[in-house]
Amino acid sequence: MRHPQRGRGGGGCGRGLARGGGGSAGRGRGNGHGRRPGGVKGRERESDGGIIGGSKVLVMPHRHEGVFIAMNIKDVLLTKNLVPGETVDNEKRISVQNEDRTNVEYRVWNPHRSKLAAAINNGIDNIWIKPGVKVLYLGASSGTTVSHVSDIVGSEGCVYAVEHSHISGKGLVTMAKKRTNVVPIIEDARQPSKYRMLVGMVDVIISDVNQPDQAKILAHNASYFLKPGGHFMISIKANTIDATLAAETVYQKEVEKLQMEELRASELLPLEPYEKDHACVFGGYRLPRKHKAATAT
């Protein structure tokens, strides 16, 4: 399993609410965020909480497909807005005019409000999420990170978003009404049998349920929905699992639990400075023998 080097660095997609049968290593900034050549200059000015026209802004593709960087604004992460003109969490927007004078709108992706964004900023090697893939998101909350995943997978992809809380679920459902590639499911992620008729086989599972048995929850959902050879990301809050142990010990114990369920970790990445005593683990499910997990460096 790779520990990044320390440094500064069934169902188909559609609108509306979906319900099941009942109730509810070190860090590093990744070498300049892994930017690729081919930037586009946009225009910036404050208006209605967004950034939509004024001084020049250089937008560059990130090495993770579907993610972008605003180079002139403290290298912030962006995703291309699937629903131009709409925000989800009152985030800033950037409007870019292409050479053919068409406009593209991007949304700022805040790593302090998204563990996946924090992992990208800290130099994760591969998030496995790209245009066209299908994702199951466990612990979707009100949908902030879900909306950015929706931007990344685009209209050809799909995000099945599971949230147990009816309070958070209201925000999730509201967001999904304008994003037809998001299927909100108000259910308990411990009981995937209740929404098995709503979710198709997926390429990636993201798990952010923040429960002591979260490894078991991920494994149970993987057995229903994750394709063999598919991938996962799980967010681990050490104090939720065992407050008596050092965070690094908790992370390793969770990795061992996952491996017993054929969920093979390839990267373990602490999320400081964005989240204290949090880490994300990325890996693969029922991988062919020739695709062995990366060894520690």
Structure overview:
Belongs to the methyltransferase superfamily. Fibrillarin family. It is found in: Nucleus, Nucleolus. The protein is an alpha/beta fold and 297 residues long. The chain folds into two domains: 75 residues, no CATH class; 171 residues, Rossmann fold (3-Layer(aba) Sandwich), CATH 3.40.50.150. Helix content is 21%, strand content 31%. It is built from seven helices and 13 strands. The chain has a seven-stranded mixed β-sheet, with helices on both faces. It has a six-stranded antiparallel beta barrel with strand order 1-2-3-4-6-5. A hairpin with a 5-residue loop joins β2 and β3. α5 packs parallel to α7. It starts with 29 loop residues before the first helix and ends in a 12-residue tail after the last strand.
Summarize the structure.
The protein has 297 residues and is an alpha/beta fold. It has helices at residues 30-33, 115-121, 144-153, 166-176, 214-225, 238-241, 247-260, and strands at 40-47, 50-61, 67-70, 76-80, 93-97, 103-109, 134-138, 158-163, 182-186, 202-207, 226-237, 263-270, 278-285. The protein folds into 2 domains: 35-109, no CATH class; 115-285, Vaccinia Virus protein VP39 (Rossmann fold).
